[in-house]
Structures are given as structure tokens and as C-alpha cells.
């Protein structure tokens, strides 16, 4: 019986090639995209699942509160870990990790710039599952100035040579130290939020950075992890952390500071940053899951519609089968079998699509590389089987029930029963498909518009033809004035400045200010070169610039308009302001400055955050970025000239640069990836839905050929007939708009609320989407 | 011996009492069968005639348990089946009744062999038994040479022979034929009628709808229908075993 059903199914597919092709393509695309997105989502959710102690490991998150604000951060400072071990008996172990990006490593005469040179406590190898291929796990990181490498790093630095017991020189801020290589660790799994090339002993840091780093710097780039004892409850620790923080942690200028535990399994998606390694975006995962589900639903709806539409061709067969003696359940089994078989075949198409497209899609979306072997894991094979069953039964059940319910007497005469109800169902499904497609089109168009708005919106300063050189070596900072003077002589260089931030990209520092018996504890501050405003073309609203007739720039202060409003406009030019910071509960004075001007607001942070108050003063010891405006007409020549000057200065730091506009665009990389996903998903949804509609239209014509022939005999023209047939489908698509528009509006409106700067939603997009359909 | 013959002669296969079939749409009610009272004995050969739209095919559908009467009684071998569910009717039908249609109603995607095998699959017979019976039926209908062909590769007469083979393969007690020669030329029509005659000779009860008085003469009895009523019955030949 099954063999006959299978043979019949295959022959039937071969007979109706066009409809088979439409159905096959639709299901393959729908399933392929679903499986592809499932693979990505599954991988993203698998982060850190390989650690044997994973259920006991937590990252410490610090929460700073001031006035009505709270900010969560995971750089907790080095002093935290020993205090936690001392105060909480249920904490079995702690791991501190520190990372300084953009440091240098020398091996013999070769220099490498490294972004993944970590320092960690030896407990790293006990708490986390990062096995050593070579070296003693207990001793490899015990002593100062020891380091372990990954195999890839070892090959990169040492080639074929055995790196064990060799040394490398690590340079940070102009200060160099030799490290002994004591081990090789296994390559870090792709699904690890921690991603090392080097792990050096944490005990090296006091000698490198001073004891204050270990005991007093509470906001240094140190990440703290804890492992609880077996059976210990994280809630028992969480409930005491507020009291602990109050007692031991330097609040600096915050009104309160507390900590909480973040379980390892949640770090990848929920760690608030600054991130020590890889991090994901959970809202993107949710959107991907929704898009995947939509694509599968649309493909299934296609299959349902095409199957029921084809029922007119099969009514005779069904009538005969019933007459001969087929029961309803036997027919249902036959049709479900056909559906499952066809779905299984489509899986082949889906696998092809996934195999061909996955690598390029992953690359364009900026996701971590996923191994093809992941598709063969038992868990994912279960997803595949589940998908086949869901699609096969889901898309086959309704047609099976419909077809098996045909009245044998009517079916024999191809006058199947239940026509009205089936047609209503089919129309409903078409409206459902197109509602999704239209809504997706609207959402994608609005989202892309918002992205363009953020990227192109006026930022209040000139970012074009601006190159950025990050300062990684104190030597560069110390000799900046000389560098600036030499660069200014370069023919294609228009102007040069420096700052503690990269405008539109990085964050500011914080400081307290006191003026006219008033105090503000946590004001944002950026440290700039006197030509900063001129070079970036930031207008002054009131007062004067640093360099304009101001002899002593170091004792001058500028604020922006938002700061002026925040200070309740209760400040005047030439007011004396005392700058300070808080440490250990004490007020540490920094300097006295005088307000010389108010600048117009400019987006010194990315457009994804609202405008904030900011102070600006000149302090060359704080410069972290050099900003050089070059001529637009000879960019390569300009860069070549700058490089020559740089190299003539013999800095430790090799020449490197980026374009400010590129860096600012990169801030929105995640949004860009999301927009890309949505564009691809929408395109596919529309394609599948249109293919299905084409199939339905073709069937409709087939069924109505007698009617069409009669109309033609009576004088109907071809265009008139086309209008008549297509008009019915246009009505369905129009009805779909009624559902799609409010749904899309609600979704986009919710999403846009996250942005302080956003587009307004206008009717034009909706009309464009409807027209496109 | 005589008493056994008497029993067979008297065994009524089909008995209907005031059988009615009414088709109802939103606007119109059509009475297709109106108080049909019939007795058909096992082994009889009955022809049903009448003008188009008189209810012949409807009667055949009801007798064949493809359709349910709106009211009245229908006894099949003494069992009252008028209110049987579709499942019950299907079970009774597949064991007892074979159908031959005017337009053959073969499944285009199945070969001749597979079409004939289909009723046996629904009966759940073993592979060996199915093979034996299909071969017998194909041999009987002299269509074995075409067993691997598809219906569209056969002539009308050949297709009808396949349909007859399918109808007899399950050894039914009753064959219902709805204008089996309607789509055939005279020579092929004669062929099919001869097949039906042979089946009847072997004891199969046959009820046949036909427009042709010549083909109706093959039967024992002709029942004339008009507007859903039985208007007359003619005995053609004496019914004897």
C-alpha cells in the first residue's frame, strides 16, 4: 500500500511539473531559510555551554546610580575579587581578567599588534574549561610574567619552533616586559564569549601598573567572575551584595553602587558591557526567529493552497478510491504520506540552499563562523526531523482532511463538495500570506530609513575626510605637538587635532564640578587639543574658543548647550569652576578652570544615545585619538605623507589609521546586519508568496477554461480576461493591506521608541509597500 | 437438492422500500428518487432504463452504497443499511460490490496492473494473494499483455476491460455498471457486454444502467424509471440458476 502511494505520488509530481516546481521551490526556500536561521540561532544560544562548571559560574555586574540614573557595567576593578572571596563563604573561586586592546608583542625582531592579550588569575584554568594541550594547568599562570598561547597564536609567532620556555616581549603604553611561555591552551571554541590569543598571569600587573591598580582602581578594565560552591544558592549572595558594596566598594561620585551575579549562560546576550569578548544581541535573535517562522508559515500556506487548489484535478481519483473501498483514514494517510514525502524531497533543496548561502550570509551579517558539522549534531538533526514533520503534517493535514471528505458520488463526476468553504479558506490563507509579506516590506523600509537617518543625520561636526589614529603609546602623546607641527607642513593635510574620544564613536570620561556653591558629581568631560573646535568645525554659541586669544588654554573650560541647560543656566562666562573626583568617599581636587564659552551641541557620542551634557578642557596627557583632516582630492597621497611623517618620528607604535566616517558607520554595524536579515527575509517571503499566488492563478485559469472559452466566443478580449482574473487576486492583496498596515505600524513604532533620534512614520511608505505587492 | 436451489432462487440480495433521494440546494429541492420499491435476487441480471435525468445513476449510487437515501429502507442480504455511516457502507461495499463506469474512471497515474490491484489493497490482502487474483482478472479480461501500460496508452475498449477487471478482482457478489458501453463503439461495446454476460454466467448479480434496448436484452429484467419513479418492469427471460 505505501509503495503504491509512493509511486503514485512521484508520478503525480512529474505530471504537474509547473506546480511541482512552484511548491518545491517555495518549500525549499522556506525550509532552507528556516533551517539556516535555526542553525544561527542555535549556535548563538549555545554560547559557553561547554564549561563543565558552567552552572556555577557567574560574571559580576556593577550597577552605578546617581540622581535618577542607573548604569550597569562589567568592568568591576581588581579589588573586587579578593573581597568577595573573603566575605562570601559560598564563593569557591574567583577569576579576574584584564584586557588592554591594541598592545604590542615582540618576538625577536618581529612586532605584532595584539587585541586579545589577556591577563588572568591562574584560577581561570580551574573554573573555566580551557584545557592546556601543553604545560601544567596548576602552575602555568602562577608566577608573574608567564603566559600561555593558543596553538594558532604559537604558529603565528613562532612558526615551527617549539614556543614552550621561549619568551615574548609585551609592550603597553611604552613600557615593555618579557613573558615566559609556559603552556599551549586548546583553541578557544567558537561559541565562547571569552576569546583569547594569549593569557598572561594576573600577578604580572602590580609590577606593570602599580599597586594602586590592584587595590584602589575600581573602574579599571578588570572583569570578575565567580564560581559558587556546589549546592550554593546565587540568591543568597545576590541578597547580600548591596550591603557588601556599600561597605567595601568606592562609590567615587555615584550616589550608590551595588553588584549582581549574571549566570554564565546569559553573559553572551545580557552582559551590559564593556564587553571583554564576543557578545550577542538577543533582540536580533528574536527577530530572526520570527522571520524564520514567518517564512516557514508562508511556504506551508503555499503548499496548502496549491494542494487544495489541485483537489479539483484529483476529485475523480478520490471518488474512485472511495467507491472501490478506501476509508477516510486510508485516504488521509495517503495524502499525508504524499505531503511528508514531498517535504522530505524539498529538504534536499533546502540543504542545497543552506549549504550554498550560509557562509556568505554569515559573513555579511557579521556572525561568528559556524562549522558545517553543527548541522549534523543530534540536536540539530532533531530540529530537521521536527521541521519535516511539522511542515509535512502542517501543510498536508488540511488538504488531506478536505480531499478525504469528498462525497464519492459527486467526486466521481468532478463535482466535489464543500467548494464554498474551501475557497474561503484558500482566500483567507492568501490574505494571511500577503499580510505578512506587506508588513515585512513596510517594516524593512522604515527600518532602513531609520538606519539611513542615523548614519546621515547632522552630527554637529564635520566628519568628512577625517582620519583617526588611535594613540597606543605614551611616546606618541608626549610628542604630539611636534607631530602636529610636522603634519601641518604636509601638503595634503588641512588640520590636526587630538582628543580623549573619537567623536561619534567612543565614550567620554567623568568628573565632578563645583561652582557658585553648587556641585555636580558626575559630569561628562572630554579632553581636547586647543584646535579641536576649529578642526571639527563645531560652532560656538557664546564666548570664545581655547585657541582664540587664550594664552592659558589649560585653565579654560568649555561646556555644551545641554550642559548649560542642565546647570539651570546658572553659570556665566569667566565663572570659576573647581574640578574634582571622588575616591574612597573623599573629594580629590583636580584643578580650577574658568568658563570661556558654550559650544553648540554636537554628537560626541553615537546617535543611538541622547545628547548629553559635556565639559571640554585642554589636557594633552589624556589624548587617545589624533584627528587629521585631509584634502579630499588626493586621499592616498595625503595618507602616504602622514605615514612618512609618522615613521620619521620613530614611534614605538606602528602607523595605523581609520576614517572617522567609517568608524561612525561601524557603530551601527549591528543595526546594519539586522536590516540585512530583514531585507533578505522579506525578499524571500514576498517571492514565496508571489509564487504561490502564481500557482493559484494558474489553477484558477485551468479550472475556468470552459468559462474563459465561452467568454471568448461571446467576445471577451484577452486583456479584459486578464483584468477579470487578476482583479480577484488584487482584491485579496488589497484586503491583506488592511491587516498588514496596523500591525507594521505597531511593530515599527515600538522599535523606534528605543532611539532618541528617529524618523516619523508617514503614509508614503505604506502606499509604496502596497504598490510593490 | 431441489430445496437448496429453491433457497438460492428466493434469496433476495437487494430490497428497497419507499426509497427516496432528495437533493437540496439553497433555492431548489430536487427529488431524484421517489418511493422506489425493488427486489433483486442474487444471481439476477437487471437492466435499468429511462430518459436522461430520471434517476438511474442516482439509484445505482444508492444501491451501490456510494450515496445515502434521504428516506426509506434498503436491505442488503437482509441487513438494513439505509442509515449506515460512510465507513460502514465502505466496508460493506468493498467486500461485495464492483463498479463499472461509463467513463472507465481509471487512475491515470497507475498502470493497468496497479489499477486492478487497488481494491485488493483496500481489502488488506497479502501480496501473494493480490498477485494471484490480479493475474486471474487480467487473464480473464484478456488484457494481461498490457499490464504495465498506463490507461492513456489504451483504447476505450481496453480501458473498459481494465475497469471490468478491477470490478471483479475482489470476487464481488454484485456488479453495478453505469452505462458501461456509453463511451464505446459497437464492436467494443459488444465485447464488454459479452464479458458482463460471462460474469453473470458464473453467478454474479449484475445491475446495469443503459440507454440501449439492444444491450438491455442481455438482462433478465428491465426496470423503467421516469422522474424518479419505477414506471414498469419487463421480464426478458426467466431467471433460473
Could you give a short description of this structure?
The complex is a heterodimer of chains A (773) and B (241). Chain A is of the alpha+beta class. Chain A has 25 helices and 24 strands.
Mean pLDDT of chain A: 86
Reported for the largest beta sheet of chain A, the result is: 13 strands, mixed
Q: How many angstroms does the end-to-end distance of chain B come to? A: 13 Å
Share of residues in strands of chain B: 25-35%
State mean pLDDT of chain B (0 to 100 scale). 88
What radius of gyration of chain A results from the CA coordinates?
33 Å
H/E element sequence of chain B:
HEEEHEEHEHHHEHEHEE
Annotation field: number of helices of chain A? 25
Helicity of chain B, as a percent range: 25-40%
Tell me the β content of chain A: 15-25%
Pick out the low-confidence regions of chain A. Answer: none
* Class based on secondary structure composition and strand pairing of chain A: alpha+beta
**Class computed from helices, strands and strand pairing of chain B:** alpha/beta
The number of strands of chain B is 10
Helical amount of chain A: 40-55%
Q: What integer value in Å does the Rg of chain B equal?
A: 18 Å
Amino acid at each position: 500500500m505505501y509503495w503504491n502511494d509512493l509511486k503514485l505520488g512521484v508520478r503525480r509530481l512529474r505530471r504537474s511539473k509547473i506546480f511541482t516546481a512552484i511548491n518545491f521551490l517555495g518549500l525549499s526556500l522556506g525550509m532552507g531559510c528556516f533551517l539556516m536561521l535555526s542553525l544561527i540561532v542555535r549556535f548563538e544560544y549555545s554560547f559557553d555551554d561547554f564549561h563543565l562548571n558552567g552552572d556555577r559560574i557567574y560574571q559580576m555586574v556593577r550597577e552605578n546610580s546617581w540622581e535618577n540614573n542607573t548604569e550597569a557595567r562589567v568592568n568591576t576593578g581588581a579589588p573586587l575579587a579578593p573581597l568577595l572571596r573573603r566575605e562570601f563563604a559560598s564563593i569557591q573561586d574567583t577569576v579576574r581578567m584584564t584586557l588592554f586592546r591594541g598592545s604590542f608583542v615582540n618576538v625577536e625582531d618581529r612586532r605584532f599588534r595584539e587585541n586579545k592579550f589577556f591577563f588572568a588569575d591562574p584560577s581561570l584554568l580551574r573554573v573555566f574549561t580551557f584545557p592546556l594541550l601543553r604545560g601544567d594547568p596548576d602552575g602555568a599562570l602562577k608566577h608573574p610574567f608567564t603566559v600561555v598561547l593558543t596553538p594558532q597564536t604559537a604558529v603565528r609567532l613562532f612558526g615551527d619552533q617549539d614556543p614552550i620556555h621561549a619568551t615574548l616581549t609585551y609592550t603597553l603604553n611604552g613600557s615593555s616586559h618579557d613573558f615566559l611561555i609556559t603552556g599551549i591552551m586548546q583553541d578557544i571554541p567558537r561559541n565562547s564569549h571569552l576569546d583569547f590569543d594569549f593569557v598572561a598571569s594576573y600577578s604580572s600587573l602590580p609590577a606593570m601598573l602599580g599597586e594602586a591598580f590592584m587595590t584602589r582602581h575600581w573602574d579599571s578594565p578588570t572583569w570578575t567572575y565567580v564560581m559558587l560552591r556546589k549546592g550554593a544558592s546565587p540568591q543568597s549572595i545576590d541578597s547580600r551584595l548591596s550591603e557588601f558594596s556599600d561597605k567595601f566598594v568606592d562609590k567615587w561620585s555615584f550616589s550608590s553602587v551595588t553588584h549582581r551575579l549574571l549566570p554564565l549562560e546569559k553573559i553572551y546576550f545580557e552582559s551590559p558591557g564593556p564587553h571583554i569578548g564576543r557578545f550577542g544581541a538577543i533582540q536580533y535573535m528574536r527577530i530572526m526567529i520570527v522571520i524564520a517562522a514567518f517564512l516557514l508559515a508562508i511556504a506551508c500556506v503555499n503548499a496548502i493552497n496549491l494542494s487544495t487548489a489541485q483537489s479539483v484535478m484529483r476529485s475523480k481519483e478520490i471518488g474512485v478510491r472511495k467507491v472501490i473501498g478506501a476509508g477516510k483514514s486510508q485516504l488521509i494517510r495517503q495524502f499525508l504520506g504524499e505531503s511528508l514525502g514531498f517535504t522530505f524531497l524539498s529538504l534536499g533543496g533546502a540543504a542545497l540552499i543552506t549549504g550554498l548561502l550560509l557562509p556568505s550570509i554569515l559573513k555579511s551579517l557579521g556572525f561568528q563562523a559556524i562549522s558545517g558539522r553543527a548541522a549534523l549534531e543530534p540536536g540539530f538533526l532533531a530540529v530537521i526531523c521536527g521541521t519535516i514533520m511539522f511542515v509535512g503534517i502542517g501543510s498536508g493535514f488540511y488538504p488531506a482532511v478536505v480531499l478525504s471528505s469528498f462525497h464519492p458520488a459527486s467526486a466521481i463526476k468532478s463535482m466535489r463538495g464543500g467548494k464554498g468553504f474551501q475557497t474561503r479558506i484558500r482566500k483567507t490563507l492568501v490574505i494571511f500570506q500577503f499580510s505578512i509579506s506587506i508588513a515585512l516590506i513596510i517594516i524593512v523600509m522604515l527600518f532602513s530609513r531609520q538606519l539611513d537617518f542615523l548614519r546621515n543625520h547632522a552630527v554637529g561636526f564635520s566628519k568628512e575626510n577625517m582620519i583617526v589614529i588611535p594613540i597606543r603609546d605614551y611616546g606618541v602623546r608626549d610628542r604630539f605637538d611636534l607631530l602636529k607641527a610636522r603634519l601641518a607642513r604636509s601638503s595634503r593635510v588641512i588640520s590636526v587635532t587630538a582628543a580623549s574620544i573619537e567623536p561619534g564613536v567612543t565614550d567620554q570620561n567623568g568628573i565632578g564640578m563645583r561652582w557658585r556653591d553648587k556641585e555636580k558629581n558626575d559630569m561628562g568631560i572630554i579632553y581636547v587639543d586647543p584646535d579641536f573646535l576649529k578642526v571639527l568645525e563645531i560652532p560656538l554659541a557664546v564666548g570664545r574658543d581655547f585657541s582664540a586669544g587664550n594664552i592659558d588654554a589649560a585653565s579654560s573650560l568649555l561646556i555644551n548647550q545641554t550642559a548649560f541647560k542642565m546647570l539651570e543656566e546658572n553659570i556665566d562666562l569667566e565663572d570659576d569652576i573647581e574640578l574634582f573626583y571622588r575616591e574612597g568617599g573623599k573629594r580629590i581636587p583636580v584643578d580650577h578652570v574658568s568658563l570661556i564659552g558654550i559650544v553648540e551641541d554636537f554628537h560626541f557620542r553615537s546617535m543611538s544615545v541622547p545628547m548629553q551634557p559635556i565639559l571640554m578642557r585642554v589636557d594633552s596627557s589624556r589624548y587617545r585619538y589624533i584627528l587629521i583632516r585631509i584634502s579630499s582630492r588626493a586621499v592616498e597621497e595625503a595618507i602616504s605623507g602622514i605615514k612618512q611623517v609618522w615613521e620619521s618620528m620613530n614611534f614605538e607604535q606602528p602607523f595605523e589609521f581609520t576614517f572617522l566616517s567609517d568608524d561612525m558607520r561601524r557603530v551601527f554595524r549591528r543595526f546594519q546586519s539586522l536590516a540585512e536579515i530583514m531585507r533578505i527575509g522579506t525578499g524571500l517571503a514576498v517571492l514565496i508568496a508571489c509564487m504561490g499566488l502564481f500557482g493559484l492563478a494558474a489553477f484558477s485559469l485551468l479550472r475556468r477554461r470552459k468559462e474563459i472559452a465561452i467568454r471568448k466566443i461571446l467576445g471577451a478580449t484577452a486583456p479584459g480576461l486578464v483584468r477579470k482574473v487578476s482583479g480577484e487576486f488584487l482584491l485579496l492583496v488589497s484586503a491583506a493591506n488592511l491587516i498588514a498596515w496596523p500591525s507594521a505600524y505597531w511593530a515599527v513604532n515600538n522599535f523606534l521608541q528605543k532611539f532618541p533620534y528617529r524618523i516619523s512614520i508617514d503614509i508614503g511608505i505604506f502606499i509604496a509597500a502596497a504598490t510593490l505587492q | 437438492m431441489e430445496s437448496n436451489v429453491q433457497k438460492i432462487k428466493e434469496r433476495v440480495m437487494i430490497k428497497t422500500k419507499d426509497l427516496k433521494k432528495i437533493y437540496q440546494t439553497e433555492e431548489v429541492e430536487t427529488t431524484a428518487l421517489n418511493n422506489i420499491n425493488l427486489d433483486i435476487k442474487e444471481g439476477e441480471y437487471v437492466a435499468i432504463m429511462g430518459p436522461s435525468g430520471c434517476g438511474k445513476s442516482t439509484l445505482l449510487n444508492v444501491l451501490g452504497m456510494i450515496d445515502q437515501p434521504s428516506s426509506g429502507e434498503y436491505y442488503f442480504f437482509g441487513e438494513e443499511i439505509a442509515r449506515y455511516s460512510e465507513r460502514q457502507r465502505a466496508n460493506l461495499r468493498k467486500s461485495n460490490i464492483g463498479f463499472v463506469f461509463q467513463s472507465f474512471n481509471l487512475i491515470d497515474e497507475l498502470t493497468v496492473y496497479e489499477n486492478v490491484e487497488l481494491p485488493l489493497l483496500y481489502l488488506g490482502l497479502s501480496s501473494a494473494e493480490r498477485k494471484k487474483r490480479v493475474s486471474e482478472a487480467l487473464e480473464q479480461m484478456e488484457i494481461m499483455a498490457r499490464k504495465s501500460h498506463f490507461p492513456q496508452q489504451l483504447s476505450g475498449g481496453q480501458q473498459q476491460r481494465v475497469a471490468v477487471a478491477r470490478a471483479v478482482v475482489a470476487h464481488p457478489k454484485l456488479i453495478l455498471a453505469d452505462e458501461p458501453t456509453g463511451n464505446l463503439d459497437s464492436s467494443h461495446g459488444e465485447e464488454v457486454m459479452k464479458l458482463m454476460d460471462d460474469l453473470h454466467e458464473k453467478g454474479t448479480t449484475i445491475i446495469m444502467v443503459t440507454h440501449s434496448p439492444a444491450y438491455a436484452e442481455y438482462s433478465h429484467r428491465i426496470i423503467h424509471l421516469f422522474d424518479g419513479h419505477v414506471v414498469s418492469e419487463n421480464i426478458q427471460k426467466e431467471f433460473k440458476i
